[in-house]
What we know:
The protein is an alpha+beta fold. The chain is built from 13 helices and 20 strands. It folds into two domains: 143 residues, DNA methylase specificity domains (Adenine-n6-DNA-methyltransferase TaqI, Chain A, domain 2, Alpha-Beta Complex), CATH 3.90.220.20; 145 residues, Alpha-Beta Complex (Adenine-n6-DNA-methyltransferase TaqI, Chain A, domain 2).
Amino acid sequence: MANDRRYWTETPLPDVIDFREGPGILARDFRDEGVPLLRLAGLTGRSLLDGCNYLDAAKVETRWSHFRLEIGDTLLSTSASLGRVARVDASAEGAIPYTGIIRMRPRSSSLLPDYVQYLLEDPGFTSQVSAMGAGSVMQHLGPSHLRHMKVRLPPLEAQTQIIAILGSIDGKIQSNVRLIDAYSLALDRVHDHAIIDADQVSLGDLGEISGGGTPKTSVAEYWQPPDVPWLTPKDMTALRGVPCVWSGERGISRSGLARSSAKLLPAGTVLYTSRATLGIIAIAQQPLATNQGFISIVPRPRLSSSFVYSTLMRCRNRINARAGGSTFPEVNKTNFKGVECSLPGPAALKAHDAMAEPIITHIAALACESRTLTKIRHALLAKLVSGQLRVPLSNDPEEQVGAAIEALA
């Protein structure tokens, strides 16, 4: 029955899911500490608490207690990053979701709590989200839209199987995230030790500073074939703190590269988002180009990418403080170059690199594995939640994952 699509039903979403959008709360109610008020940044960051505000606990009890989140709730973003899904863990238990975030819980015993996330990531559902999102500048989806949506609901046995397969992959990806966080802390300590008694220089002294560009979107030959990886700040946001990047959603052609201000940057270039989304930093793992929302450093000889990366991380707040612009914040290259930083002598740099470079190598390997797992997960999810992929039942999640990947191939 689990693998028989005849038992899968298309069901009105309100019949199986209880949903509630977070309240609109004025800034005057924000506090320095208290009950977290989750923002959209938390659904796109490493932690649900990223970018959160805080509310007075007593006021929450009298006005917003019915919005409190429980472990296992699923959250759906309804504006900006439309359709982003996240699960509530212990860190956000009892928090309040802000307006623009909808809390989802099973209403029916025919839907398992752990399956809600995959139901909302079903391409059949996400296409409805895209179609119903309203707004010409920033799309928004509200509870009124959800009341008219339908979801594809497998029998409980199939839900359990899908949870086991995709949950195993999700667990491995999260394990990699924790390891990357640990390695990143080690990288910070290595850098802190290296710059003791270092000379003071400017960021412009660390290497060649360059910007980026965008080929004309109206010229098809500038975009096809997309031979050159090309990044936007949105691609950097998707890294969620991982300091390594290979490519973005789009690429440009060799012709587009030649006929725009975009530049082909070598592997090892350190990238810094400098427009609108400020201060996301990563090391290019292969030759690539960027749009104009970046300032990039090609390290000078005898300076490693890991040292330049850690330097930018240490200087990030001071760089961002130099941002100008009336429409959106932007750091220009002149202001960027002038930021003071520490540069140790040759012996200290050599000692730094001996410890830091292997750390970066480990981080890159973990990030690469997670990229592969994410692609596999995406392909499997589309087939599994639609009932197109049949996998033999097993009590061993790893065995089921292997069987699913084999069936996918």
